[in-house]
Structure formats: structure tokens, C-alpha cells
Amino acid sequence: MISFKQLPVEAKAAVAAGVIFFSMMLSRSYLAEQLELRMRRWLLRLQMALFANALMLIGSLHVWRSTVTTFSRSSAASSFCFMPWKIAVFMFLALAHSSFFTLLFLVAEEPYFFSLAAYTCLGAYIILIFFLFTLGSVEQAYKFLAGRGMKAGTGNKNRTAIKPVLAVMLTAVLTVVGLLNASQPPTVNSVEVPVHKLPLTMNNLKVVLLSDIHLGPTVGKTKLAMIVRMVKALKPDITVIVGDLTDSEAEIIRPAVEPLGELNSPLGTYFVTGNHEYYTSDVSNWFELLKSFNIRPLHNENVKIVSPKSTDDWFCLAGVDDIEADVLRYSGHGMDLKKALTGCSSERAIVLLAHQPVAAKWALQERPDINLILSGHTHGGQMFPLNAGAYFLNPFFVGLYKVGQNTFVYVSPGTMYFGIPMRLGSRAEITEIILRSP
Q1: Which of the residues 111, 130, 360, 380 has the least number of beta carbons within 10 Å of its own beta carbon?
Q2: Does 245 share its domain with 288?
Q3: The domain that contains 309 carries what CATH number?
Q4: What are the strands, taking DSSP E only, across 238-353?
Q5: pLDDT at position 9 over 70
Q6: What is the DSSP letter of 77?
Q7: pLDDT tens-digit profile of 11-51?
Q8: How far apart are alpha carbons 7 and 13 in whole angstroms?
Q9: For range 234-246, the mean pLDDT
């Protein structure tokens, strides 16, 4: 039997990741009620950071071997540029690994430069891993089709060096493009949605949809203030925030949230939780903070949105907790559609707020009479190459979908971004939804 010491480093990292994941499950199942809330928050975040770093170590070893070890065996090792390059690669990997720990130590009203640099390196790390793997696969496929194996020789070494150089160049270009794209204000996307049984007096009602702002290490008060100004300029009747507003505890990041107090939609501003609210383990405090800004959380509940022109005309606006609350066993929370739609009959139009598209799918299976569901979560993939994974993991990816005869689902690509201040193949969005009475 092979001992743990004899395992390659990659295998040891995989084992470590498995052990950490197992400890996360144990702590959620058996320690949740025994630990004080603040300790639970720290333990969960620390476990998630360690788990991510253990998995990343496997990729980091591949990056190091591809971009450093490969050249150390060639004439490039004697160059005066090799040592600075070696240090640069080490610092790049160190920053990428440190990004997950900024949630524990570096969250404030405005992002720290270190956090921005660390998460930028994390984004570049993901792109670099993709290109190293893709180019390596292409190289192996070429050798297989050519019917010849790798032979030692100067020409072969030169060809081996092309792969990491090309991967680094592509990564650098896409990183810059991604940073520039994400630095732009969100685009305003206006969408008209016919809502079955919407009263005629509520035709052209304007709903502004926000999602996935992710206040935390790389999004602060300045960006939120910009979003609020853009929303106010649209003059919505209703504003809804469909989850992942934050990645931090309410007390820590309270100053950054203050611009939300300027939202003054005449028919109200409403909020439902996303998975990241539950990662903070501070949902109750967030509810109280949002209420102080006249933002109403819909905690598996609904409200009647009454027409300004006639008190007899109204529709049902409901919201459900994010499904991740069940996974995390968050006490008193979890998606409860039956409770959320209590009093919402099919005789009136029903609009549901549900953070994840999976929740939207489940809701329609249980209540196909829902007319419109507003979701987020996917970020439109946020950045290449994560787009493909987000597309295949969600029943609705981004934009407007028609389900059946009288139901629509709209998935926001997100109003900001999570952690990595980059967008590739997607664009941040504030959605202006115009409700039409058929």
C-alpha cells in the first residue's frame, strides 16, 4: 500500500481538499447549534477558503511546472530575466491563493488595492489554467494524429516552450479586456414582458431589477452609489434586488450600504436572499439593515402591489429564500413556495422573486400559474471560461425565457460581479422591465 508521504503533491492536495470538505459537512451537521454565531461565520469562511486553496494547489503546481520548470531546463535559465520571471510567477500564484482570505480580513467601505490585485490574479489564474490545458490537449491530439511520440531534441524543447508563452500572452490580453469591461457602468437593458391577468390600469408598470451586486472585497460604496443613481434616473415604480447583495456581515460593511437608502420607488423596494447572504451567516442583521433603508425583505412571503389608479387592481409580488439555505441548514430559512404564495390565487397575476434559476424551475413545477419569475445568480457566466459551466448548470442562463403559454422567466446577468473584477463574454446589467397587460 502506498503511504501518504509517497503520494505526489497533487494527490496530497486532493486528499486535503477532501478532508476539508468532510469537515465542512461535519461542522454544519453537528457543530452548528453548539458554536456561537460569529464563530460559525469564521469557521465556514475559513473552511471554504482552505478548500478552494487545496484545489487550487493542483492547478498552481501545473502552472509552475509549465511556466518555470520548463524553462529551467533550457538555455533560458541562464538569462538574467529568469529569476525575476520566477519571482513574478510565485507572486502571481501567491496573490491568487490569498484572494479567498480577503473576505476574512480585508472588507471595508471601499475595496483595498490588495483585494483588487488578488482577485485580478485569481481571474488571470483561471484563464491561464484553461489555456494551458487546452493547448496541452491540442498538442497531445496533434502528436496522436501525427502518429509520433515526443522525442528529445532542441527543436522539441522549443516547441514545448511555445505552449506556456502563448498561454501567458493570451491570458494577459484577456485579463486586460476583462478588467476594462467590468470597469464600465452597467448597461441598462429595457425588456417588455406581457403579464397574463395584469390589470389594464397597471399597463407599462416599470420594475427595475438588480442582482448580484456582491458588496465585499472588490465592490464598495462608490460602485453602489453609481448603481443607485442609475436606478433613480430610470424612475421605476418598483425596484427589486434578487439576492447576492453582499459577501460580508452587515456590521462590517454597513457604511458601503448607505446609498440604498436613496432608493425611493413609489410602490416599494423589495429584496430576496441569494446564496451569498447565507454564506455570511448574518441574514437577520441584513434584514434589519435593509428595513432601515425602507427595503422590504420577502422572506417566503408576498405583498399586494396595488395600482396607483385603482385600489381594486393589484397583483401578487412574492419572494422565496434561496435554496442554499436548505443546504447550509440555516435555521428558519429555506425555499418555501407554498408559504410565499399564500393568498396568491391564479385569478391575479403573480410575480415571483427567486435568486437561482433552479429555484425558478422548481417553482414552476409546483405552481405553473406563476406569470413572471425574476432571477439572477448566473452572472451570465461572468467571465470566460466559466461561461460554459454556468450555462450547463442552470435551466435558465441569462435573459428572457417563455415557459408554456403565460409564463416568463428573466435571468439577470448581474449588476456587478463576484470577487474577480473582470467580465469576459458577459456585461453587467441594470434591467428595466416594462410589464404589459395583454
Answers
A1: 130
A2: yes
A3: 3.60.21.10
A4: 238-242, 269-272, 295-297, 301-307, 310-319, 350-353
A5: no
A6: G
A7: 666 776 777 767 766 666 666 556 666 676 677 778 888 88
A8: 10
A9: 96
Same domain, residue pair 111 and 254: no
Q: String of b and e for 277-297 (b: at least 16 CB within 10 Å)?
A: bbbbbbbeebbebbeeeebbb
Give the DSSP letter of residue 318: E
How many C-alpha atoms does 227 have within 13 Å on its Cβ side? 33
Query: Domain check: are 165 and 18 in the same one?
Result: yes
Contact indicator for 187, 428 with CB cutoff of 8 Å: yes
Is the Cα torsion angle 96, 99, 101, 102 positive or negative in sign? positive
Place of cell 441574514: 283
Residues 320, 330: Cα–Cα separation, whole Å = 14
Q: Residue 32: CB partners within 8 Å, gap ≥ 6?
A: 40, 329, 331
C-alpha cell at 217: 472585497
Q: Give tens-digit pLDDT for 354-366.
A: 999 999 999 999 9
Mean pLDDT over 49-64 rounds to: 87
User: CA triplet 40, 41, 45: central angle to 5 degrees?
Assistant: 115
AA letter at 13: A
pTM over the 0.85 mark: yes
CA pair distance 43, 27, nearest whole angstrom: 9
Query: In this predicted structure, what is the pLDDT of residue 423?
Result: 95
User: Which residue range forms the structural domain that includes residue 120?
Assistant: 4-182
**3-state DSSP assignment of residue 210:** strand
Q: Which among 67, 118, 129, 69 has a CA at the least distance from the CA of 96?
A: 118
What are the Cα distances from residue 417, in Å, to 210, 215, 400, 423? Answer: 12, 9, 20, 8
Do 310 and 402 belong to one domain?
A: yes
DSSP string over 359-411:
HHHHHHHH-TT--EEEE--SGGGSSTTHHHHHHHH-SS-SEEEEETTTEEEEE
- Structurally, the chain folds into a number of domains equal to 2
When computed from its CA atoms, the radius of gyration of the chain, rounded to whole angstroms, is: 24
CB 402 within 8 A of CB 365: no
Q: Is 3 helix (H, G, I), strand (E, B) or coil?
A: coil
Least confident of 102-111, 157-166, 244-253, 335-344: 157-166
> Could you tell me the maximum CA-CA distance found in the chain, to the nearest angstrom?
84
The SS3 of residue 283 is helix
Min mean pLDDT across 87-96, 132-141, 155-164, 343-352 is at: 155-164
187's grid cell: 448597461
Residues 117-123 have a mean pLDDT of 96
